[in-house]
Design a protein that fits this description.
The complex is a heterodimer of chains A (199) and B (315). Chain A is of the alpha+beta class and 199 residues long. Helix content of chain A is 33%, strand content 33%. The relative contact order of chain A is 0.19. In chain B, helix 1 crosses helix 2, helix 1 runs parallel beside helix 3 and helix 2 packs across helix 3. The chains are: A alpha+beta (199), B alpha+beta (315).
């Protein structure tokens, strides 16, 4: 394969519980246009993410121009997403959406430091589209699988992002295993509720 | 030095039509390079062959390799290899240059591969649908895609049996995370055999032309681990989105803008999961068949909630 074609960055699958624990960003070259990565606590770099969840609230928090904030909930926590004039399609999607709604977001991780010195992480959307419950359920299962992949590889020798995660974060990966279990159980519970509902 | 002797015999065979050589003198030259000058055998062979090529005034592709291997088209993964194939002519295209006698697709059980035969090689013409044994064809690579070139030394034997052409389609799945520009309702150049997509009514080859409408979607499937670009042609686009060419034209007319079609389609498919099957062409998989994937209890083991729970608890 030719290396001259710039490769598109993969969209990582990560639950909100893990995503919101991330804060360290880095580049792998000095090039101004080199991709910026968010380091996930389970030991992976993320320049792009794909999330599916329930949009529970949206609000235009802009002062001079439109700047939409959306809260997107998965079984483990809440993603925050912000879209303004530089993300016109995503901003118009947020403007038109009526919560609650299942949405899929492809976007880039963004971090900002708050006044008290803690780091918040959000998603700058490339696209926001409405999806159905089945797509959301598949995302939960898929994200569980990808998270387990990362946890299983965490102690592998030569896993440089796991090594980086140990240095940058003092976070036990077991927590994310527990989040995976909780997320999968929520799918199970939903199935049972559906099964018990009168026909 | 049985090894050198067999190399010498193969070289002798390669040049038997062109030069009056003996196996012994070839072996001697090889032995001198290998034993006295510590040249690796392959390099020695290359060097000896080159000097005979010079002597005979031939180009490398005008002689057989002497050692060409029976191969399946799907196994070809290296440039400049000499191979023998047993294939059916799956498709013939119109050559776009006088120097090309024939161009098309050859297939065997492993799939299909592009072939080219040049006018200067003066070979007999292959017929579409017929099966042949081709010996001494050489492989070629361009941007990661392989093809084979027939050449002056290629021998063509028509076969009585029919070589079955296998399916080399790939299957990919993942979330559809992006629609690339040039998707939706597009216009193509109407010139014969051009079909280039117009940019602002212009063809990069034929300039300003009256384009013909077409539908397609260029997109990216992403499974969280790797990305794959996929193209849906007009029929596949209509099946995927429920919007056919006529409806797309009406939408564009109403909006006085062709881009509304791509935007509308984007809302319908971005963020959903698909499994797509079809042949790979360059960077793209061409979607012949596809299905939307949904739910966590799809037969797919990797997203089965039950087995994932067991996996998580065993950690």
């Amino acid at each position: 394969m030719s290396q001259s074609v710039p490769t598109r960055e993969v969209a990582r699958r990560v639950f909100a519980a893990e995503y919101n624990d991330a804060s360290y960003t880095f580049k792998e070259s000095d090039d101004e246009r080199a991709p910026l990565y968010l380091l996930l606590p389970t030991g992976e770099r993320a320049n792009r993410v794909f999330i599916v969840g329930t949009l529970t609230e949206k609000e235009d928090v802009g002062e001079d121009s439109e700047y939409w904030r959306g809260r997107i909930v998965d079984p483990t926590g809440t993603f925050f997403t912000y879209a303004g004039q530089y993300q016109p399609e995503a901003a118009s999607a947020l403007r038109e959406l009526e919560p609650p709604a299942y949405v899929a977001v492809v976007g880039k991780p963004r971090t900002y430091e708050t006044d008290d010195g803690s780091v918040n992480v959000s998603v700058r959307p490339e696209s926001i589209t409405t999806v159905d419950a089945a797509t959301r359920d598949r995302w939960v299962a898929e994200t569980a699988a990808r998270t387990l992949d990362r946890i299983e590889a965490f102690d592998d020798e030569g896993n440089e992002y796991a090594r980086m995660a140990r240095e940058q974060y003092d976070l036990p990966v077991e927590e994310y295993r527990d989040a995976v279990v909780a997320a999968l159980q929520s799918l199970d519970d939903a199935d049972e509720l559906e099964g018990e509902a009168p026909a | 030095m049985a090894d050198l002797q067999s190399h010498a015999e193969e070289i002798h065979e390669q040049f038997s039509d062109h030069l009056d050589l003996t196996t012994e003198e070839i072996e001697e030259r090889l032995a001198s390079l290998v034993n006295e000058y510590s040249v690796p055998v392959d390099e020695a062979r290359r060097s000896v062959v080159n000097s005979y090529l010079d002597e005979a005034g031939l180009e490398r592709d005008e002689i057989g390799s002497g050692g060409s291997q029976q191969a399946l088209v799907g196994d070809i993964d290296e440039d400049e290899q000499w191979v023998d194939l047993r294939v059916t002519v799956a498709d013939l295209w119109d050559p776009n240059h006088d120097s090309i006698a024939q161009v098309g697709l050859l297939g065997d059980e492993s799939g299909t591969i592009k072939f080219v035969s040049f006018s200067t090689s003066e070979l007999e013409e292959l017929e579409e649908g017929e099966s042949y044994a081709l010996s001494n064809v050489v492989t070629d690579e361009y941007q990661g895609n392989y093809s084979v070139k027939l050449n002056r030394t290629t021998t063509i034997t028509e076969l009585d049996e029919e070589i079955e052409v296998g399916d080399d389609s790939d299957e990919v799945e993942g979330a559809l995370v992006d629609i690339q520009s040039g998707s939706g309702l597009i216009k193509r150049c109407p010139e014969d055999d051009c079909t280039r997509v117009l940019q602002n009514g212009r063809c990069s080859e034929h300039g300003q032309v009256d384009g013909e409408f077409d539908l397609r979607i260029k997109t990216v499937l992403d499974d969280g681990d790797a990305v794959q670009e996929v193209i849906f042609n007009e029929a596949a686009t209509a099946e995927l989105t429920g919007i056919g060419l006529e409806e797309a034209k009406e939408m564009a007319q109403d909006a006085l803008d062709t881009t509304v079609v791509g935007e509308e389609m984007s809302d319908m498919i971005v963020g959903r999961y698909y499994r797509v099957r079809g042949p790979t062409l360059g960077r793209y998989v061409l979607a012949d068949e596809f299905e939307e994937l949904s739910g966590a209890d799809d037969a797919d083991e990797t997203v089965d909630a039950e087995s994932l729970l067991i996996r998580a608890r065993s950690l």
